[in-house]
């Protein structure tokens, strides 16, 4: 998921099990719903099973949800997730009070190899419901946590609770508010100065500074936008003295040739995403007024009766964009795709084309898969009752009709007592015929023809 804006749902994103997923440059806000017990609606709800590829959450902005900003846990152990360069703020306020910006931990589940790096997490003083801290590690323990380079800013609250940790790296962070820590296998929890002694390579502030301005930045890690050549930067402003305007220093980007001297920079507050204003770079800096920016109130919320707590000028998150100095528009003439069957005999052309498309063109693969699903439903409809078949999965790993491997053909049958799983490890051609007869009594040769050469999943037959 790249550069999306998702808002005003019951839950911005529930990302269940697939590993290796990347979520970059998106804005998630104002997701919530009120239940009989409390408000619900985390911004991002993530799972990642042990053993899968690393999942990356980078450069996103997550704010004003009904509950947590990012909730990382599930009913299975949780592992190998990188959360980097994101801005989380004011989460929980769309519901009945501030809540956690970051939550990694639940019940007895273990966490392994979680990296939390270079993020901004901010909660101001205001209404809360008792869990307004960033949680790292649950009852099952946290193994190899890396909490590095973050700004965890919860003044007057507990900013970080690190629970049951083993082999944790905690350094380079700015922590404003309380902090606590416990080791795996121990119920003893240390707080305050004891945590500072254990992890001395952080900057600790029990209360917010009375003056000054902190500027947090995250540059979009991808190349300039492919179509207009614009670079993008996320800027978090912690304006402790509530000054009416602030200076954003872009000298480093100018020195690196990423922004031209005197460039026009477009800016919007993420809480008013349609209000873009233009400022000019002068001596490597832009001066931004913090007055008059709007706010993105949740749909259906009467802010006259139930107002959101003010954010600016004390705090704000802005998007900046400007033309990349070295960007050159690329030619976009369509390129012909070679025909893999052009030089083959007529009877071999179709099989060669299908195999090449299956491997190289996901869109065509999906289209062919949909055709086969429709054909399956048309053919098996009289047999596909709830009592016979709910789901049938073929995994062929085949070329033409030469099946080269043993696989498990798995079928889900609905019986009187509920779903029953049946696994048949066998040669695919034989296993498919046997299990197909058990499921629907349709012709095994027809099923073999339908699945030929494809990794095929068929569902929803009833």
Multimeric organization: single chain
**Total number of beta strands:** 38
Mean pLDDT: 73
Share of helix, binned: 10-25%
Which blocks of ≥5 consecutive residues have pLDDT under 50?
380-462
Number of domains: 3
- How many alpha or pi helices? 6
Largest sheet: 17 strands, mixed
Q: Into which percentage range does the β-strand content fall?
A: 35-45%
What is the CA-based Rg, rounded?
27 Å
Helix/sheet category: mainly beta
Principal-axes shape call = globular
Termini separation = 32 Å
Describe the structure.
The chain has 462 residues and is mainly beta. The protein folds into 3 domains: 5-205; 213-323, Immunoglobulin-like (Sandwich); 346-459, no CATH class. Helices cover 14% and strands 37% of the residues. The chain is built from 6 helices and 38 strands. A hairpin with a 2-residue loop joins strand 34 and strand 35.
């Amino acid at each position: 998921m790249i550069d999306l804006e998702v808002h005003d749902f019951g839950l911005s994103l529930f990302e269940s099990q697939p590993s290796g997923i990347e979520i970059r440059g998106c804005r998630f806000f104002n997701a919530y719903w009120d239940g009989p017990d409390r408000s619900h609606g985390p911004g991002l709800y993530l799972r990642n099973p042990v053993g899968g590829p690393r999942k990356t959450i980078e450069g996103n902005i997550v704010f004003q949800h009904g509950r947590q900003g990012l909730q990382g846990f599930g009913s299975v152990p949780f592992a190998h997730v990188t959360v980097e360069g994101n801005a989380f703020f004011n989460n929980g306020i769309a519901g009945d009070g501030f809540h956690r910006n970051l939550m990694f931990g639940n019940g007895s589940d273990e966490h392994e190899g979680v990296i939390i790096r270079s993020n901004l997490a901010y909660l101001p003083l205001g209404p809360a419901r008792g869990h307004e801290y960033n949680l790292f590690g649950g009852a099952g323990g946290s193994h190899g946590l890396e909490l590095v380079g973050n700004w965890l800013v919860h003044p007057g609250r507990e900013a970080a609770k690190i629970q049951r940790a083993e082999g944790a790296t905690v350094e380079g962070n700015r922590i404003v508010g309380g902090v606590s820590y416990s080791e795996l296998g121990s119920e003893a929890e240390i707080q305050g100065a004891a945590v500072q002694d254990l992890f001395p390579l952080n900057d600790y502030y029990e209360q917010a500074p009375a003056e000054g301005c902190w500027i947090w930045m995250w540059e979009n890690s991808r190349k300039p936008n492919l179509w207009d050549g614009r670079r993008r930067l996320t800027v978090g402003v912690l304006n402790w003295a509530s000054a009416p305007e602030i200076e954003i220093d872009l000298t480093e980007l100018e020195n690196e040739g990423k922004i031209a001297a005197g460039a026009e920079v477009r800016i919007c507050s993420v809480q008013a995403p349609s209000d873009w204003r233009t400022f000019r770079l002068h001596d490597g800096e832009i001066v931004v007024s913090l007055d008059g920016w709007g706010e993105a109130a949740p749909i259906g919320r009467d802010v006259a009766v139930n107002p959101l707590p003010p954010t600016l000028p004390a705090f704000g998150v802005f998007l900046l964009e400007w033309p990349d100095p070295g960007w050159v528009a690329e030619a976009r003439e369509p390129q012909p795709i070679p025909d893999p069957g052009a030089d083959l005999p007529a009877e071999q052309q179709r099989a060669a084309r299908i195999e090449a498309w299956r491997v190289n063109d996901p869109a065509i693969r999906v289209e062919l898969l949909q055709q086969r699903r429709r054909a399956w439903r048309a053919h098996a409809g009289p047999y596909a009752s709830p009592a016979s078949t709910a789901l049938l999965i073929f995994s062929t790993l085949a070329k033409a009709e030469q099946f080269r491997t043993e696989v498990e053909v798995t079928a889900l049958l609905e019986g009187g007592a509920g779903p029953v799983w049946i696994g048949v490890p066998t040669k695919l051609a034989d296993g498919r015929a046997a299990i197909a007869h058990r499921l629907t009594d349709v012709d095994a040769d027809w099923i073999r023809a339908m699945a030929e050469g494809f990794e095929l999943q068929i569902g929803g037959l009833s």
